[in-house]
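Weekly puzzle thread! Below is a chain. First person to post its structure in token form gets bragging rights.
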Amino acid sequence: MDDVDRIERRLKLHDVRVLMSVVEAGSMHKAAERLATSQPAISRAIGDLEHALGVRLLDRSPHGIEPTQYGRAIIKRGLAVFDELRQGVKDIEFLADPTAGALRIGCTESTAAGPVLAAIDRLTLRHPRVVFDVVTGSVPALCRDLAERRVELVILRTPEALVDDDIVVEKLFDDSYFVVAAKQNLWTRRRRIELADLVHERWTLPSPDSVVGTFARDAFRAQGLTLPATTVVTLSMHLRNRLLATGRFLTIMSGFILKLPGKHASLKALPVKLPNARGTVAIITLKNRTLSPLAELFIETARAVAKALKNAK
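Winning reply:
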């Protein structure tokens, strides 16, 4: 029996969970409260784990307890182990009842209103008991949630800088940004519009550090213009759509949103040329992470939605 076999025999998943809880809580006392056990039991579990591995896993600092480099290594692998166990439970539940299950998805506001909405609409018609937990946020936050296994997959417009050996990127479809207004807006009567013509209009846009906000800033700069003063800054697609409906606001929106049948029939893309407007919407998953059957089903449905969007005029 080699050293690895001996360590595996002495390691306990319970002790790894205790280590993760101590680091999350910042102290053994708080971890004991979370786990409904005593502080001596917490200390004993950490001691057993350190003895089995032969290294120190925790350090005390003025800010509380912090993991050593060895502790961080175990926690990283522990997250994967417990995630795989959860996935195993989901697999069993789905196999026992394919009409039920739960899936946690990460996406931006725009993809939530587009391919994610369309895929969920299709799946809930066929599997009404399935539950979807949709987490919206910025690209960095979503990638962090994926890496930390808080979501099973992410759908977003991929930035050029998104390169990571730990992820798998599957292209769904190409998409372009457009300047969008309500059909009753006077600008929709024009056949040709320059971006400079719209500088003094009322705009509603996401925050400048968002994907769309950054694109808007760069689009105006590329034409020697300053980004207009945004009247309403919000990530909420619902709020922006309500503002557009007044006929007094403009925004920048992904083209796929306008293609969804009946969802945004009152909106129209203006004939404005935007530089570097084309990009790729993709599904991102963790490499070497086993996806649940429901996640596989969602991805299959998203591919079908992408195909329909490509064929839509």
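Puzzle host: Confirmed. Bonus trivia for everyone else. Residues 16 and 78 are 7 Å apart (CA to CA).
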